[in-house]
């Protein structure tokens, strides 16, 4: 589930790479993945400060994707 969330976010950013906001959000997702890997073991067992670097970019990608779908619908 953890891996699939990140892959889906990166795939969404890749599909909409012409939009600057998706490019920035994708870079932040990659940065968050790197921060989680640099934290060492216990990524899921012991949430720490680096979780902000993981969850905020995922939330940004989600918000951008919802906003894009609403604009296309209107």
Automatic annotation (TrEMBL):
Keyword set, alphabetical order: Membrane, Transmembrane, Transmembrane helix
Source taxon at top rank: Bacteria
Transmembrane segments: 21-38, 50-67
Name this polypeptide is given: DUF2878 domain-containing protein
Naturally occurring in which organism (per UniProt): Bowmanella yangjiangensis
């Amino acid at each position: 589930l953890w891996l699939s969330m990140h892959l889906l976010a990166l795939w969404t950013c890749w599909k909409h790479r012409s939009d600057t906001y998706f490019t920035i959000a994708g870079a932040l997702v990659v940065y968050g993945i790197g921060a989680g890997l640099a934290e060492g073991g216990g990524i899921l067992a012991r949430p720490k400060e680096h979780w902000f670097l993981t969850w905020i970019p995922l939330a940004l990608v989600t918000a951008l994707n919802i906003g894009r779908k609403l604009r296309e619908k209107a």
